[in-house]
């Protein structure tokens, strides 16, 4: 499947990139980071334009994110719970909603590119939590354009090492996610240990 | 709270494991050539191995389509009715020959 997607982007360029990132932003797990890196490499080969690639990736991602937000907002919790099950994740809706509210705009921004596996879930719960649409749109566009620009530029710079670069970025994303989890869990442990005990 | 403690240890371990793997891949970027995959087009392979695309097209006996032939190796193998691994091996030999020409200085 990944090979076919990469071949399609390699052959058809920006329009294919737009279609695939739109589907991925709705929640289908696809190797978007690798696709953006490959697009960057194609730019350095003269097979794609820089602004065309950033525009296609940014516009496709924002479109998919907005669809996710709309599903969350107007589809209601029942649809979101069903979708969560379909995509293999049954996280507690209330927990995710609370996180979306607590993280706010910066949370939306960071899950567009640095912690991108969380992006589709944040879209859905931002909708169910009725996070203001204009703010969601602002942080969404900012994050997606940043992500597209960063990964495409990296691909352009390391254009002859796309697979290894993709592996580095994938591992770094998980390392950052694990570190974030460790900080949150460590804080909870510390708070528990400092709590005065009732005799 | 025991579960939180275990999850904390797991998260710490995960941080180190993924950071180590990222470091290992960084070393690969500096030292190893990109392997050829079926999704890659011939111009893409030529770019990643710093070899002219015409050399690779010639090696597999394909006349590139105009203006740009960006068919994947898998697609070319399908068009030629040949196995993908065979085509990849042929491309790899052409790359090796270009890097170390017989009787010449290695690039």
Notes on the protein architecture:
The complex is a heterodimer of chains A (199) and B (107). Helices cover 82% and strands 0% of the residues of chain A. Chain A is mainly α. Chain A has one domain (2-194). In chain A, helix 1 runs parallel beside helix 3 and helix 3 runs antiparallel to helix 8 (162-194). The longest helix of chain A is centred in the middle third of the chain and has 37 residues, at 50-86. Chain A is globular and about 70 Å long. The mean pLDDT of chain A is 87. Chain B is 64% helix and 0% strand. Chain B folds into two domains: 1-32; 42-99, no CATH class. The longest helix of chain B has 30 residues, at 2-31. By secondary structure, chain B is an all-alpha fold. The model of chain B has no long low-confidence stretch (mean pLDDT 88). Chain B has five helices and no strands.
Which chains have the largest interface? A-B, 35 and 37 residues
Content-based structural category of chain B: mainly alpha
- The best one-word shape of chain B is elongated
Helix percentage of chain B? 55-70%
The proportion of residues in beta strands of chain B is under 5%
Structural descriptors:
heterodimer; A: 199 residues; mainly alpha; 8 helices; globular; B: 107 residues
């Amino acid at each position: 499947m990944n090979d076919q997607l990469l071949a399609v982007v390699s052959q058809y360029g920006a329009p294919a990139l737009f279609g695939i990132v739109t589907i991925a932003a709705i929640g289908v797990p696809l190797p978007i980071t690798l696709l953006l890196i490959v697009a960057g490499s194609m730019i350095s080969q003269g097979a794609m334009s820089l602004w065309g690639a950033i525009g296609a990736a940014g516009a496709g991602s924002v479109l998919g994110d907005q669809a996710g937000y709309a599903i969350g907002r107007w589809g209601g919790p029942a649809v979101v719970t069903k979708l969560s099950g379909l995509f293999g994740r049954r996280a507690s809706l209330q927990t995710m909603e609370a996180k979306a509210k607590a993280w706010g705009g910066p949370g939306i921004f960071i899950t567009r590119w640095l912690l991108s596996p969380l992006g589709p879930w944040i879209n859905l719960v931002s909708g169910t939590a009725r996070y203001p649409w204009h703010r969601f749109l602002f942080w969404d566009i900012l994050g997606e354009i940043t992500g597209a620009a960063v990964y495409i530029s990296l691909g352009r710079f390391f254009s002859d090492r796309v697979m290894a670069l993709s592996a580095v970025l994938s591992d770094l994303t998980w390392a950052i996610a694990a570190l974030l989890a460790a900080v949150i869990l460590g804080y909870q442990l510390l708070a528990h240990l400092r709590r005065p005990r009732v005799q | 709270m025991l579960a939180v403690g275990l999850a904390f240890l797991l998260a710490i371990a995960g941080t180190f494991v993924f950071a180590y793997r990222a470091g290992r891949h960084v070393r690969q970027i500096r030292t190893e050539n990109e392997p050829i995959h079926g999704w890659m087009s011939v111009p893409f392979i030529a770019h990643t191995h710093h070899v002219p695309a015409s050399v690779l097209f010639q090696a597999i006996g394909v006349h590139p389509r105009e203006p740009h032939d960006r068919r994947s190796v898998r697609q070319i193998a399908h068009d030629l009715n040949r196995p993908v691994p065979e085509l990849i091996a042929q491309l790899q030999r052409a790359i090796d020959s270009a890097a170390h020409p017989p009787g010449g200085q290695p690039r």
